[in-house]
Amino acid sequence: MENKFCDLLVCVDDVMTMDSKDSVIHDGCIAITNDTIVAVGEASELRELYSAKKEMNLRGMVALPGLVDTYGHAGHGLIKSLYHPEHGWPTNPVYFHNSTPQWWYMESMLASVERIRFGVTTGYSVIGATPARTDNVIYAEKNIEAVSKVGSKTVVGVGPPDPFVSHVPIPWDGTLWEDGTASRQLFTYEQCLSNTENIIKNYHGSSDGRIEVSLHYPYLLSRQAVHPKFPYYYDSKDIPEMIAKAQQIREIADKYGVLLHSHAFVGSVEYALKEFGEEITKDLLDGPTLFAHCNGLLDEEVELLGQCETGIAVVPFTHENLWYGVCPVSDLLQAGAQVTVSTDGSAPYTSYDLIGELSRVAWAEWHRTGSQESVLPTKLLRMVTIDAAKALNMDESIGSIEIGKKADITVIDFQKPHLTPCYSAPWMLSFYANGNDVDTVIVDGNVLLHGGQYTDVDVEEVVRDAKNESRKALEGINYKKYIFS
Description:
The chain is an alpha/beta fold. The protein is 34% helix and 25% strand.
């Protein structure tokens, strides 16, 4: 029989497909043509069937689908280590007044190469803090430009600020830097919403489909958990406007067929059920919807989110866990929600090492439920692969290693002391591995990382330029008050 042709054969000890059966192929191989997986099977079989332009023989390694991070904030990467329990961190002065478009470009470059180093092929990035920085389209454009250059995938979260829970002083203003000149201007909710629609129209599905845009609205169903640094309150007269704006956001997301991404904490859903009504609340969740955090949810909140099969982006390592309690992961899973694990961005005290977050999720659930059986290792891995892809409404193209899907693959090197011996790969990946164990990363059939080294990015240049942009943005700011040592 005449051989078929493919561009690349990736041969490993085990292929963890993350398909519907969680199939594992020992002595496995993945055949790739262009940007697509064309065959998955045993290496001996695929070598007989295919003649490849290139073969990667990665013995002692395990292949997973490219990891998917369902929630992170852009901007955080250039203010790492600046956090004080009393003073907070310099997001507002930097993001809204001391950051140039080049600053946002370099932050996205840094975040993209960090994610690739840790095996994250698709990440979610909210542009700015809350409210998001959509007073000008340039910030999202620079983020997208950097991701496109690196070759990874992103879902860019853009949207208007929350009109009731403001994380920056009102009236809102931002500083645009052009050619070294600062122009400080007021901006409105309506301007940000208009910019949001323009970004969606111009960039959703761009860069050969590697860029998607999501409508990010800070608090779709309200925020009831008290924020210790940004006091706020709702008045009963606000409710009609809250409902109208939430419905408008839902309509825009549905109009463009994009994911609606938001935050929720204990009391958010309960408040909506009481003040908006059950019908309106369910209508707001009728469509691809994902809530970040979901700390301390009440039973009725868990039940509704499960009924609506809502996506949940758990943040295992965050001060919200101290303030409101942890996210009830196993309860949400049992209720039917699409639970995923996320990083929340690379500051103030974490990184984009998504693998490292798995053990934190497990530990929090063990502690909350008193049982080590509340969440299992294989499920943890699904929460950063196929379940995460489904929560982002991208599971038809990514999230598992199956024929016809995009060739997004992360390969872990198990030939290391801390991963030896291995009798259960899911257990080792969930509790022993970390992002630095990633050896090879492939996105759309392109090898972006091999042997732990970037193939097409000068990472030393990225690090140097990122440091330079960070230093410039901190000029004139008393950043030392945010250092807690």
